[in-house]
Amino acid sequence: MADYVALALIWGASFVLVLHVVAAFGWIGAVAFRALIASAILLVIARATGRVLRFGNWRPLAVVGATTVAGQLVCLSFATPRIGTAMAAIFVGSIPLFSLVIGRSLGVERVARSAIVGLFIGLAGIVLLVGFPAVPVTPVFVLGCASSLAGSAFAAFGSNYAHRHLRTVGSWEQTIASFFFGGAMTLPLLLAVPVPTVPQLADAGFLVLLAAMCSSLAYVLYFRLVAEVGATLAISVEFAVTVIAVFVGAVLLHEPLTPMQLVGGAVIITGCAMVVGLLPLGRRRGASARQA
């Protein structure tokens, strides 16, 4: 629960940093530089503290880097300016449902029925929270929606793949390697999508902060959570992330907050509680699933 709450707070507050970093470095540069810096930060800390790293086979780590890091972050960075943050948040909220379908089809994990109900409740809450913005359905909008769905699928597949193939690999190793591979894969794309402007020193500071807090620290917690509770339950944190992101936007960015959004936030919290087994029904179901 401590990891779950910490992830929700870190990723929910990260949207302020992401907006600044993408504006300064572009939607490709923001992902590539963030990933490589995040990997380097953890590697330096590990070496300085004498932490022994055992990466094992590099192929599964490269797959996770290509999906969870490169695929997800690039698709979402591309889509958000084209469909708006509200619609992007709805698609991010679909990641746990993708994870549920992929996890069950691959036989990676079994999820309690109450957790499944919680996932759909959480998704309904996200729709109430962010609403449906009045955006014309143009080819660009459709392309952005397709990109968002692809990013959600990448994230869900990568999480299930890590849960299946990297159970014996530590969360530090998974984070260092996946961000290295993800950054290395996206870096050449800068030839097609260069940095739009000359970044300032403050921009570099925001980039390092984003990499250190929202990538290095957050993904160590996330991969550890995936190993402990499974991909679907771990990635359900995206519901709580959306709630926090909306409230952060209201407080720091002065975005409007309506009573319907407050209702949506309460619905999402209820769904999260069912997913992680905090409600009585979820606890009984979750226990029976684990015993099975």
Number of helices: 11
Number of strands: 0
Global structural class: mainly alpha
User: How many independent structural domains?
Assistant: 1
- Show unreliable segments: 282-292
Q: Helical content, roughly?
A: over 70%
Q: Summarize the biggest pleated sheet.
A: none
Rounded average pLDDT: 81
Could you list some keywords that capture this structure?
292 residues, mainly alpha
Detailed description of the structure:
The structure is a single chain. The chain has 292 residues and is mostly helical. It is 80% helix and 0% strand. α1 runs antiparallel to α2, α2 packs across α4 and α6 crosses α7. The protein is globular, with a radius of gyration of 18 Å. The C terminus is likely disordered.
Q: What order do the helices and strands come in, and which of them pair?
A:
Blueprint lengths: L1 H47 L9 H35 L2 H12 L6 H18 L8 H27 L5 H16 L14 H29 L1 H5 L1 H16 L6 H18 L3 H12 L1
Helix pairs in contact: 1-2, 1-6, 1-7, 1-9, 2-4, 2-5, 2-6, 3-5, 4-9, 4-10, 6-7, 9-10, 10-11
Summarize the structure.
With 292 residues, the chain is an all-alpha fold. It is built from 11 helices and no strands.
